[in-house]
């Protein structure tokens, strides 16, 4: 890891947050090293926020588009040739779904959500959330965007990803043609 990443790692208070960040940073370097046939230590990434200059922005590198996400026990990394955004979330029926939905969903999405209850409602809300977050990661707008206004823009393809029960994940890719998506478990990459 570079100095900025070591600083971010040290800033995490909880051990599980540190572990997820470290795993994400390791996966990015190893995947890019394999893609570019370079040693992982030579991979240069940039996490500078374009708005404030602090190191909490989208991960970037020359020659590839990246997105990193984590929730619960899962860490995901997407790499491609077009702008993309990846999000994974744990379905949590314990949150105040209605309150969060009023702040993040468009009126037609709220109407749709109102048809559900319990875990089904939590799952529908989480589906909306992962799609929206994937889109704002792909566009580079991030969560500073009013999510109530986020719709899938023309030329953006959404792909639901295979994740363990209790989680949902979405990938947004901004490209003219539908993306070819290959999902892999990183266990072999890390061994």
Description:
With 191 residues, the protein is of the alpha+beta class. The protein has two domains: 1-63, Ribosomal Protein L22, Chain A (Alpha-Beta Complex), CATH 3.90.470; 82-179, 4'-phosphopantetheinyl transferase domain (Ribosomal Protein L22, Chain A), CATH 3.90.470. Helices cover 38% and strands 18% of the residues. The chain has six helices and five strands. It has helices at 3-11, 15-36, 97-104, 107-113, 118-139, 187-190, and strands spanning 65-71, 74-80, 84-90, 156-160, 167-174. The strands form two sheets. A three-stranded antiparallel sheet has the order 3-5-4, covered by helices on one side. A hairpin with a 6-residue loop joins strand 4 (156-160) and strand 5 (167-174). Helix 1 packs antiparallel against helix 2 (15-36). The protein is globular, with a radius of gyration of 17 Å. The model has no long low-confidence stretch (mean pLDDT 92).
Summarize the structure.
This protein is α+β, with helices and mostly antiparallel strands and 191 residues long. The chain has helices at 3-11, 15-36, 97-104, 107-113, 118-139, 187-190; strands at 65-71, 74-80, 84-90, 156-160, 167-174.
Structural class: alpha+beta
Strand order of the largest sheet: 3-5-4
- Count of strand segments: 5
Main beta sheet, described?
Answer: 3 strands, antiparallel
Helical residue percent band: 25-40%
Strand content: 15-25%
Q: What is the approximate shape? A: globular
Specify the CATH class of the largest domain.
Answer: Alpha Beta
Nearest-angstrom radius of gyration? 17 Å
Spans where pLDDT lies below 50 across 5 or more residues: none
In CATH, the homologous superfamily of the largest domain goes by the name: 4'-phosphopantetheinyl transferase domain
CATH architecture of the largest domain: Alpha-Beta Complex
CATH topology type of the largest domain: Ribosomal Protein L22, Chain A
